[in-house]
Design a protein that fits this description.
Length: 170
Amino acid sequence: MTGRKDSDSDPARRLFSTLADTPTGMLGIEGSGQHMQPMTHFADEATQTLWFITDRGTDLAAAVGSGGTAHFTVTSDDHEVFASMVGPITQSENQGKLKDLWSPMVGAWFEGGPEDPDALLLEMPLQQASIWITSGDVLKFGYEMAKAALRRDAKPDIGDHVVIDFRSAA
């Protein structure tokens, strides 16, 4: 990576910083036949895990079943970071973690608090992430595209791309 910002020298750190600043993304379960759906995520950088809370009666809970492979995408609010993550996803009965993640926002969906029998915690340890980082500068983007259109030997420099394999980083 050429480094758009200081934190770009550590793409995993930039990913988790983006996840902390961007509360929602799109979650899909491989082979479920369902479209990806917007979900709030809870990122744990120390364990490289994403957590989600859903209702046990949802199509998402049924698609996860006893386990599967999930894809989660997120775009930073400033459109500087685009990320696609993949990893196994399972239903978790970790009540301690559910209580740690609980907030008034989550509580709006469940009358019984973290003890609500319909509240279901999903766990997604990350295996891999693909991250694209741009400057977010519209003028630079326009300049790079115009330069490439005028000069056949010029490729637009609109950002960096890196793939992180969390399995080898562990």
